[in-house]
Amino acid sequence: KLHGNIAIDGPAGAGKSTAARLLAQKLGYLYIDSGAMYRALTWKALHQGIDLADERQLVALAEATTIRLENTAAGTVKVYCDNEEITAAIRQETVSHHVSTVARVPGVRRRLVELQRQMAASNRVVMDGRDIGTNVLPEAPYKFFLTASLEERARRRYQELIASGRPVDLETIKEEIRRRDAQDSQREVDPLQPAPDAVIIDTTNMKVEEVVAKLLELIQAHH
Ligand code: C5P
Protein backbone atom coordinates (compact mmCIF):
# COMPACT_ATOMS: atom_id res chain seq x y z
CA LYS A 1 0.00 0.00 0.00
CA LEU A 2 1.08 3.50 -0.78
CA HIS A 3 1.21 6.32 1.62
CA GLY A 4 2.27 9.89 1.33
CA ASN A 5 1.91 12.71 -1.08
CA ILE A 6 3.37 12.90 -4.55
CA ALA A 7 5.10 16.06 -5.78
CA ILE A 8 5.60 16.67 -9.50
CA ASP A 9 7.54 19.69 -10.72
CA GLY A 10 9.00 20.80 -14.00
CA PRO A 11 8.99 23.47 -16.69
CA ALA A 12 6.00 24.54 -18.77
CA GLY A 13 4.63 21.93 -21.16
CA ALA A 14 6.58 18.96 -19.78
CA GLY A 15 3.33 17.00 -19.44
CA LYS A 16 3.10 17.36 -15.67
CA SER A 17 -0.57 18.12 -15.37
CA THR A 18 -1.86 15.33 -17.62
CA ALA A 19 0.42 12.77 -16.00
CA ALA A 20 -0.38 14.04 -12.49
CA ARG A 21 -4.11 13.94 -13.16
CA LEU A 22 -4.02 10.39 -14.52
CA LEU A 23 -1.76 9.23 -11.69
CA ALA A 24 -4.11 10.72 -9.10
CA GLN A 25 -7.05 8.97 -10.76
CA LYS A 26 -5.27 5.61 -10.68
CA LEU A 27 -4.30 5.98 -7.03
CA GLY A 28 -7.55 7.56 -5.87
CA TYR A 29 -5.69 10.65 -4.73
CA LEU A 30 -6.74 14.26 -5.04
CA TYR A 31 -5.06 16.08 -7.91
CA ILE A 32 -3.97 19.63 -7.14
CA ASP A 33 -2.91 21.82 -10.05
CA SER A 34 -1.00 24.54 -8.20
CA GLY A 35 -0.33 26.42 -11.45
CA ALA A 36 -4.10 26.85 -11.86
CA MET A 37 -4.09 28.80 -8.58
CA TYR A 38 -1.44 31.26 -9.81
CA ARG A 39 -3.38 31.51 -13.07
CA ALA A 40 -6.66 32.18 -11.24
CA LEU A 41 -5.12 35.02 -9.28
CA THR A 42 -3.52 36.42 -12.44
CA TRP A 43 -6.87 36.27 -14.22
CA LYS A 44 -8.52 38.22 -11.41
CA ALA A 45 -5.74 40.82 -11.31
CA LEU A 46 -6.03 41.38 -15.07
CA HIS A 47 -9.81 41.43 -14.83
CA GLN A 48 -9.63 44.14 -12.16
CA GLY A 49 -7.04 46.13 -14.06
CA ILE A 50 -4.49 45.89 -11.27
CA ASP A 51 -0.99 47.09 -12.10
CA LEU A 52 1.06 43.89 -12.04
CA ALA A 53 4.16 45.84 -11.01
CA ASP A 54 2.40 46.83 -7.78
CA GLU A 55 3.37 44.01 -5.42
CA ARG A 56 1.40 45.36 -2.46
CA GLN A 57 -1.81 45.38 -4.46
CA LEU A 58 -1.15 41.84 -5.68
CA VAL A 59 -0.58 40.59 -2.15
CA ALA A 60 -3.75 42.32 -0.94
CA LEU A 61 -5.62 40.73 -3.82
CA ALA A 62 -4.23 37.27 -2.99
CA GLU A 63 -5.31 37.65 0.61
CA ALA A 64 -8.83 38.73 -0.38
CA THR A 65 -9.37 35.99 -2.96
CA THR A 66 -10.91 32.55 -2.53
CA ILE A 67 -9.56 29.99 -4.96
CA ARG A 68 -11.04 26.53 -5.10
CA LEU A 69 -10.08 23.51 -7.21
CA GLU A 70 -12.68 20.81 -7.72
CA ASN A 71 -11.83 17.32 -8.95
CA THR A 72 -14.79 16.12 -11.01
CA ALA A 73 -16.00 12.55 -11.39
CA ALA A 74 -14.80 12.69 -15.00
CA GLY A 75 -11.27 13.31 -13.77
CA THR A 76 -11.08 16.95 -14.82
CA VAL A 77 -10.45 19.95 -12.57
CA LYS A 78 -12.79 22.91 -12.25
CA VAL A 79 -11.28 26.16 -11.07
CA TYR A 80 -13.29 28.66 -9.07
CA CYS A 81 -12.30 32.16 -8.10
CA ASP A 82 -14.59 33.75 -5.50
CA ASN A 83 -17.15 31.09 -6.49
CA GLU A 84 -17.06 32.04 -10.16
CA GLU A 85 -16.00 29.21 -12.46
CA ILE A 86 -13.00 30.33 -14.54
CA THR A 87 -11.65 26.96 -15.72
CA ALA A 88 -11.42 28.01 -19.37
CA ALA A 89 -10.51 31.66 -18.76
CA ILE A 90 -7.26 30.85 -16.95
CA ARG A 91 -5.89 29.18 -20.11
CA GLN A 92 -6.10 32.41 -22.14
CA GLU A 93 -2.85 33.60 -23.62
CA THR A 94 -2.89 36.87 -21.68
CA VAL A 95 -3.00 34.88 -18.45
CA SER A 96 -0.14 32.62 -19.58
CA HIS A 97 1.82 35.69 -20.56
CA HIS A 98 1.51 37.44 -17.19
CA VAL A 99 1.31 34.60 -14.67
CA SER A 100 5.06 34.47 -13.95
CA THR A 101 5.02 38.15 -13.02
CA VAL A 102 2.34 37.51 -10.42
CA ALA A 103 3.96 34.26 -9.22
CA ARG A 104 7.26 35.93 -8.40
CA VAL A 105 5.75 38.07 -5.65
CA PRO A 106 6.71 36.57 -2.26
CA GLY A 107 3.47 37.57 -0.50
CA VAL A 108 1.40 36.03 -3.27
CA ARG A 109 3.33 32.80 -2.97
CA ARG A 110 3.04 32.77 0.81
CA ARG A 111 -0.74 32.90 0.55
CA LEU A 112 -1.13 30.29 -2.20
CA VAL A 113 1.39 27.92 -0.63
CA GLU A 114 -0.59 28.09 2.60
CA LEU A 115 -3.74 27.03 0.70
CA GLN A 116 -1.82 24.25 -1.06
CA ARG A 117 -0.52 22.87 2.24
CA GLN A 118 -4.01 22.99 3.74
CA MET A 119 -5.34 20.91 0.85
CA ALA A 120 -2.54 18.39 1.25
CA ALA A 121 -3.03 18.14 5.00
CA SER A 122 -6.49 16.61 4.78
CA ASN A 123 -6.10 14.52 1.62
CA ARG A 124 -3.65 12.27 -0.12
CA VAL A 125 -2.57 14.38 -3.07
CA VAL A 126 -0.68 14.44 -6.29
CA MET A 127 0.35 18.07 -6.61
CA ASP A 128 2.09 19.58 -9.61
CA GLY A 129 3.86 22.90 -10.03
CA ARG A 130 7.30 24.46 -9.81
CA ASP A 131 8.19 24.40 -6.10
CA ILE A 132 6.15 21.49 -4.74
CA GLY A 133 9.08 19.19 -3.93
CA THR A 134 11.38 22.00 -2.82
CA ASN A 135 8.99 24.12 -0.80
CA VAL A 136 5.29 23.24 -0.62
CA LEU A 137 5.64 19.58 0.35
CA PRO A 138 9.32 19.04 1.19
CA GLU A 139 8.38 15.98 3.25
CA ALA A 140 6.60 14.25 0.35
CA PRO A 141 8.07 10.74 0.00
CA TYR A 142 7.65 10.77 -3.78
CA LYS A 143 9.13 13.60 -5.81
CA PHE A 144 9.46 13.82 -9.54
CA PHE A 145 10.83 16.42 -11.91
CA LEU A 146 9.51 16.08 -15.46
CA THR A 147 11.38 17.70 -18.31
CA ALA A 148 11.37 17.56 -22.10
CA SER A 149 13.20 19.45 -24.82
CA LEU A 150 11.96 22.96 -25.55
CA GLU A 151 11.01 21.85 -29.08
CA GLU A 152 8.91 18.98 -27.80
CA ARG A 153 7.22 21.06 -25.12
CA ALA A 154 6.33 23.75 -27.65
CA ARG A 155 5.04 21.13 -30.05
CA ARG A 156 2.75 19.63 -27.38
CA ARG A 157 1.35 23.00 -26.42
CA TYR A 158 0.87 23.83 -30.09
CA GLN A 159 -1.14 20.67 -30.67
CA GLU A 160 -3.30 21.30 -27.61
CA LEU A 161 -4.11 24.79 -28.80
CA ILE A 162 -4.78 23.71 -32.38
CA ALA A 163 -7.03 20.92 -31.07
CA SER A 164 -9.01 23.47 -29.07
CA GLY A 165 -9.52 25.48 -32.24
CA ARG A 166 -7.14 28.32 -31.55
CA PRO A 167 -4.92 29.71 -34.28
CA VAL A 168 -1.33 29.73 -33.03
CA ASP A 169 2.18 29.91 -34.30
CA LEU A 170 4.76 27.34 -33.16
CA GLU A 171 7.64 29.82 -32.95
CA THR A 172 5.58 32.21 -30.84
CA ILE A 173 4.70 29.40 -28.44
CA LYS A 174 8.32 28.37 -28.20
CA GLU A 175 9.35 31.90 -27.32
CA GLU A 176 6.60 32.22 -24.71
CA ILE A 177 7.62 28.96 -23.04
CA ARG A 178 11.28 29.92 -23.10
CA ARG A 179 10.51 33.29 -21.53
CA ARG A 180 8.21 31.86 -18.85
CA ASP A 181 10.71 29.16 -17.86
CA ALA A 182 13.47 31.75 -17.60
CA GLN A 183 11.30 33.92 -15.35
CA ASP A 184 10.27 30.96 -13.21
CA SER A 185 13.85 29.67 -12.90
CA GLN A 186 15.42 33.01 -12.15
CA ARG A 187 13.03 34.44 -9.57
CA GLU A 188 14.32 34.91 -6.09
CA VAL A 189 11.70 33.03 -4.10
CA ASP A 190 11.24 29.30 -4.69
CA PRO A 191 12.41 29.17 -8.29
CA LEU A 192 11.78 26.26 -10.62
CA GLN A 193 14.38 23.62 -9.78
CA PRO A 194 14.44 19.93 -8.93
CA ALA A 195 14.44 19.00 -5.26
CA PRO A 196 17.72 17.26 -4.35
CA ASP A 197 15.78 14.03 -3.78
CA ALA A 198 13.57 14.25 -6.89
CA VAL A 199 13.71 11.65 -9.65
CA ILE A 200 14.26 13.47 -12.95
CA ILE A 201 12.39 12.07 -15.93
CA ASP A 202 12.96 13.29 -19.47
CA THR A 203 9.64 12.79 -21.25
CA THR A 204 10.77 14.05 -24.67
CA ASN A 205 10.29 10.66 -26.27
CA MET A 206 7.52 9.34 -24.02
CA LYS A 207 3.76 9.19 -24.43
CA VAL A 208 1.75 10.32 -21.43
CA GLU A 209 0.67 6.72 -20.68
CA GLU A 210 4.33 5.75 -20.56
CA VAL A 211 5.07 8.60 -18.18
CA VAL A 212 2.26 7.51 -15.86
CA ALA A 213 3.43 3.88 -15.98
CA LYS A 214 6.97 5.01 -15.17
CA LEU A 215 5.79 7.09 -12.21
CA LEU A 216 3.75 4.18 -10.84
CA GLU A 217 6.69 1.82 -11.25
CA LEU A 218 9.03 4.18 -9.40
CA ILE A 219 6.51 4.77 -6.63
CA GLN A 220 6.03 1.05 -6.12
CA ALA A 221 9.75 0.29 -6.27
CA HIS A 222 10.63 3.09 -3.87
CA HIS A 223 8.28 1.98 -1.13
O1 C5P B 1 1.64 24.87 -14.36
P1 C5P B 1 1.31 26.11 -15.15
O2 C5P B 1 2.12 26.24 -16.41
O3 C5P B 1 -0.15 26.29 -15.38
O4 C5P B 1 1.77 27.30 -14.17
C1 C5P B 1 1.59 28.63 -14.52
C2 C5P B 1 2.62 29.50 -13.83
O5 C5P B 1 2.35 29.56 -12.43
C3 C5P B 1 4.07 29.07 -13.92
O6 C5P B 1 4.68 29.49 -15.13
C4 C5P B 1 4.68 29.75 -12.70
O7 C5P B 1 4.97 31.11 -12.96
C5 C5P B 1 3.55 29.68 -11.70
N1 C5P B 1 3.69 28.58 -10.76
C6 C5P B 1 4.54 28.74 -9.69
N2 C5P B 1 4.63 27.77 -8.74
C7 C5P B 1 3.89 26.66 -8.83
C8 C5P B 1 3.05 26.46 -9.93
C9 C5P B 1 2.97 27.44 -10.90
O8 C5P B 1 5.23 29.75 -9.60
N3 C5P B 1 3.97 25.74 -7.87
TrEMBL record:
Pfam families: Cytidylate_kin. One of its GO terms (cellular component) is cytosol. It catalyses: dCMP + ATP = dCDP + ADP; CMP + ATP = CDP + ADP. ATP binds at residues 10-18. Keywords: ATP-binding, Cytoplasm, Kinase, Nucleotide-binding, Transferase. One of its GO terms (biological process) is pyrimidine nucleotide metabolic process. Residues 6-220 form the Cytidylate kinase domain. Signal peptide: none annotated. Its EC number is 2.7.4.25. CDD domains: CMPK (cd02020). It is found in: Cytoplasm. It is an enzyme of class 2 (transferase). Its main location: cytoplasm. One of its GO terms (molecular function) is CMP kinase activity. Belongs to the cytidylate kinase family. Type 1 subfamily. This is Cytidylate kinase. The lineage of its organism: Bacteria, Bacillati, Bacillota, Clostridia, Neomoorellales. The gene is cmk.
